């Protein structure tokens, strides 16, 4: 049974939205949001929106994402029924290897359309609305820690209680100093987490992490290189604080291997890594079967991809560690949505309404365009 809608046109936009500050990570600095925005338009006049937010040091490049979407996937989508999401995703996975962010953008746009057609929100299409909101984590990643302290104080006043300190990009002493300072100011009410973004050498990782454990972090994320999975498993085995795998788990295959070697206590779920919301739910199912927790991670994204992430997290059977969809509220100089991404009182609110429940402002795409839109 087909819907009465056909994909008529596909447009691909490249935007760069400047950040309010440089954010430093174990694998490099980021000064803005490089996003590829996908517009899937039906012959019935509906528009589904999708976003790919690649990071060259982590998932891929914007140029590669544009080519995957426009050159390689677009010809197979024109004239097709948008609601047959699994069929299109299976085809996309067969047509283009890798490029999980491009596939995430495609699935996002198709689910947005399917939601508009059915009157259901995306979280309902993939399982149901298990929660309406979740705690928001902000990443302390400014090389100028004084500026971070000002930002944290402002966010604390707004109700944010979760802070993820990006470590391993400067010195071990700098990391210890920042943790001591934040724990000293905010006490036990602060939920402090640590993310090395692969920044520790495996041979010395255990000793460095043990030093930081004095400040009672909730978890330590990705201390070693993405492919050093055995080292990560060893660290998770000997360190008492929960260890999270982020760069080491993209999709279901890494998740399955990760479970087999007990690589971590937590997996970071990201639609950009797994190639969509539904594949991320598959990763979460593998984790859940093994007693591994999941967490709502993101790349450098606009509010559009954050909305997809919020729908993913809303549909999970359990969520204890909340999410980090802070970019559009606290990092980007401006967002591309017609309404602000819903963050209130330190919590992310899952958008309501059919589909993703958010819409892109075309004027913002034009303002931050990096190239002429394709299509
Ligand atoms: Mg991370």
TrEMBL record:
Gene3D superfamilies in alphabetical order: Enolase-like C-terminal domain, Enolase-like, N-terminal domain
Record InterPro entries: Enolase-like_C_sf (IPR036849), Enolase-like_N (IPR029017), Enolase_C-like (IPR029065), Mandel_Rmase/mucon_lact_enz_CS (IPR018110), Mandelate_racemase_C (IPR013342), Mandelate_racemase_N_dom (IPR013341)
GO term, biological process aspect, one: peptide metabolic process
SUPFAM superfamilies for this protein: Enolase C-terminal domain-like, Enolase N-terminal domain-like
Domain of life: Bacteria
Family per record: Belongs to the mandelate racemase/muconate lactonizing enzyme family.
Descriptive protein name: Putative cycloisomerase
Lineage summary: Bacteria, Pseudomonadati, Pseudomonadota, Alphaproteobacteria, Rhodobacterales
């Amino acid at each position: 049974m087909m819907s009465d809608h056909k994909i008529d046109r596909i447009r691909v936009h490249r935007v760069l939205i400047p950040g309010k500050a440089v954010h430093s990570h174990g694998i490099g600095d980021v000064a803005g949001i490089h996003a590829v925005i996908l517009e899937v338009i039906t012959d019935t006049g509906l528009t589904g929106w999708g976003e790919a937010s690649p990071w060259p040091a982590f998932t891929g490049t914007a140029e590669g994402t544009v080519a995957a979407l426009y050159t390689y996937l677009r010809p197979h989508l024109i004239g097709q029924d948008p609601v047959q999401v699994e069929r299109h995703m299976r085809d996309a996975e067969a047509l283009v290897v890798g490029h999980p962010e491009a596939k995430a953008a495609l699935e996002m746009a198709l689910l947005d359309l399917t939601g508009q057609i059915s009157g259901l929100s995306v979280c309902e299409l993939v399982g149901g609305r298990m929660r309406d909101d979740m705690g928001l984590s902000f990443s302390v990643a400014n090389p100028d820690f004084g500026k971070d302290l000002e930002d944290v104080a402002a966010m604390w006043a707004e109700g944010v209680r979760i802070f993820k300190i990006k470590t391993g990009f400067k010195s071990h002493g700098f990391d210890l100093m920042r943790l001591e300072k934040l724990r000293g100011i905010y006490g036990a009410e602060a939920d402090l987490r640590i993310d090395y973004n692969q920044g520790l050498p495996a041979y010395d990782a255990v000793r460095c992490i043990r030093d930081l454990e004095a400040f009672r972090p909730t978890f330590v994320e990705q201390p070693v290189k993405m492919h050093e999975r055995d080292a990560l498993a060893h660290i998770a085995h000997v360190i008492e604080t929960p260890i999270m795998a982020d760069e080491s788990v993209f999709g279901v295959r890494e998740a399955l291997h990760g479970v087999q070697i007990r690589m971590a206590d937590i997996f970071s779920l990201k639609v950009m890594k797994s190639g969509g919301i539904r594949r991320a739910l598959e990763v979460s199912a593998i984790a859940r079967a093994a007693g591994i927790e999941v967490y709502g991670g993101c790349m450098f994204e606009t509010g559009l991809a954050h909305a997809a992430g919020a729908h993913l997290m809303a549909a999970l059977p359990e969520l204890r560690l909340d999410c980090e969809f802070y970019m559009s509220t606290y990092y980007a100089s401006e967002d591309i949505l017609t309404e602000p991404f819903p963050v209130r009182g330190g919590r992310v609110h899952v958008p309501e309404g059919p589909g993703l429940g958010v819409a892109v402002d075309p004027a913002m795409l034009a303002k931050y365009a990096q190239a002429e839109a394709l299509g």
